[in-house]
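Job type: complex structure
Entries:
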Amino acid sequence: MPELPEVETVRRGLDDLIIDKVVAQVSFTHAKQFPNDPQAVKNFLIGARVRATGRRGKVLFIHLDNDYSLVIHLKMTGQLVYIDDSARWGGGHPSDSLVQSLPDKSTHVTITFRDGSRLYYNDQRRFGWIKLYSDPEIQSIPLIAGMGPEPLSKLTTAEDVMQRIRRKKNSGIKATLLDQSVIAGIGNIYADESLWAAGIHPERRVFTLKDAELKTLHKEIVQVLRLSLDKGGSTDKNYVNARGQRGSYIDFARVFRREGAPCKRCKNEIIKIRVAGRGTHICAVCQPMSGTKRVRKGRG
DNA sequence: CACTTGACCTGTCCGC
DNA sequence: TGCGGACAGGTCAAGT
């Protein structure tokens, strides 16, 4: 489930790998994954040069030199993997097996560049998509237009984030964190991780949260996203970066997928419950519904 | 209007 | 060993 750290890791990889490449050819298996007018693809994608990469929340951009961009959402199982001859024959890193085996049956879009290198879009469950937009159109994509602030941007203040969360007064705090219009880029993993770190039960209604709790939550969101970025994101099952390599944040996770294991703060057993329709991992001692529990610094 | 639930998909795991 | 069903979760549409 690529969230902000995973998408940003892919973006950084692409930025090293595909800038200045010229698109020569595009193929796809399902129009739902690549829902583009063939004429627009022919006119504005084929022959275009990659100018820059970008990201907004969990949405990835490949900006072309003609004021068009590929807009990409990996959703749950999407991968963007770049392969050239040096990766195929010279790599030597642990992801070689994946690199060697592409394309495979999960490859739904293949972009071939003029130098023969390729960008594969793989998506086991086919929830994600790649779409060509003119740059002005991007702003009118509802998801983009309504998206909340970037949590890691220096321009985003704790006060702004807290105020946006407060507007969802009757919602549960986890549902609020997952709402991309409140804050961009958080998904199930980092919602659970940051709520544990802040000592807040995911079912707490927003109006019950004290300012100090929201302030701590904001701080922990920033820290957990930064840590994950540092670890190259989380690979649960599918996620890999643009070179086909896995991320290692899961090894550092405090609650996510740790049900049955001891809480790293109080040794109580981590349990899995269902909140906002999602599997949710908590320490019921550190994250009480009452919200009166004082959270000490974890060494997590 | 505010908020919650179901649909979209397919691979994996569990119980029988 | 095979099979049905639950489960995984980001976003949008539909429902309460």
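Summary: The CA atoms of residues 154 and 222 of chain A lie 11 Å apart. Residues 294-300 of chain A have pLDDT under 50 and may be disordered.
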